[in-house]
Amino acid sequence: MYSTNKKIFEQYSLFGKALANSNRLEIMSLLMQSPKTVKRIAKDTNLSVANVSKHLQMLLKVHLVKNRKYKNYIYYEVINKDIENMLTIFFETAQNQLENLSEIETVFSNSNEYVLTIEDLEKRLSAKDIVLIDVRPSEEYLTAHIPGAISIPLQDLESMIEKLPKDKEIVAYCRGPRCLMSKEAITILKEHGRQAVQFNQSVNDWNLHSMLQ
Q1: Which domain holds residue 36?
Q2: Does residue 105 fall inside a structural domain?
Q3: Cα separation of 87 and 107, whole Å?
Q4: 57 lies in the same domain as 126
Q5: Together in a domain, 131 and 192
Q6: Residue 99 lies in a domain
Q7: How far is the C-alpha of 55 from the C-alpha of 37, rounded, in Å?
Q8: H/E element holding 60?
Q9: Which of 176, 147, 183 is nearest to 84 (CA)?
Q10: Residues pairing with 36 in the sheet
Q11: Rounded CA separation 33/163 (Å)
């Protein structure tokens, strides 16, 4: 006699299988930033439109994402905040537990560079002694951003850099520790004589931290 209902765990396994793919995890990470079309996801992930569509169908099947039509386009998004929070915790836990992940991230980051923590950023924003910039695409900023941040997409940074003060530290953030846009922004800012530091957590990390306070 079984002590559990195996059919329930079979259904749980379908949920797990949907996430047990690096491309689908990357797609979910992108959709946590803002709703996106298939073409935009394909561009951001360097996957074919057909491949992205196949992955999205799998994610739709287990109710991790939903879609909606706006004008002539179909947008995909994370189905609810519970899934966003679950994935935020999942990525953070994986980052803490997997030694290989830490080694890979070290390759993409300069360990000598100081990176603000969430607690640091809270204090600096309260003190009003920094300028916080969001270097993600503007549609992601419009979907959600850290309070007090201004939107300067990475591709526009050099053309807008003269609007940023030289007497205040500039803090740049993007999609979190798996995103390199804020690191590139720091390099550009320093090349133009600005004091700059990276905040390598995401808006979802910030919101989850605020919710748990």
Answers
A1: 6-81
A2: no
A3: 24
A4: no
A5: yes
A6: no
A7: 13
A8: helix 49-61
A9: 176
A10: 76
A11: 26
pLDDT tens digits for range 94-107: 877 776 665 555 55
Give me the DSSP letters along 62-84: TTSEEEEEETTEEEEEES-HHHH
Decide if 201 contacts 177 (C-beta within 8 A): yes
Take residue 166 and report the two structure tokens written for it: 């030289």
Last residue of a domain, one of 81, 101, 133: 81
- At 175 the three-state DSSP class reads coil
Where do we find the tokens 């189905």?
A: 79
Q: Strand 73-78 to strand 65-70: parallel, antiparallel, or no bridges (unpaired)?
A: antiparallel
Tokens 């949907």 correspond to: 18
The sign of the torsion formed by the CA atoms of 194, 204, 142, 58 equals positive
Distance, in Å, from the CA atom of 178 to the CA atom of 18, rounded to the nearest integer, reads 20
The model's pTM: 0.70
pLDDT value, residue 53: 97
Number of structural domains found in the chain: 2
pLDDT for res 106: 56
Enumerate long-range contacts of 118-123, CB under 8 Å, 24 or more apart. 118/201, 118/205, 118/206, 118/209, 121/146, 121/171, 121/199, 121/206
Could you say which residues of the chain have pLDDT below 50?
1
Q: Tens digit of pLDDT for each residue in 28-64?
A: 999 998 899 999 999 999 999 999 999 999 999 999 9
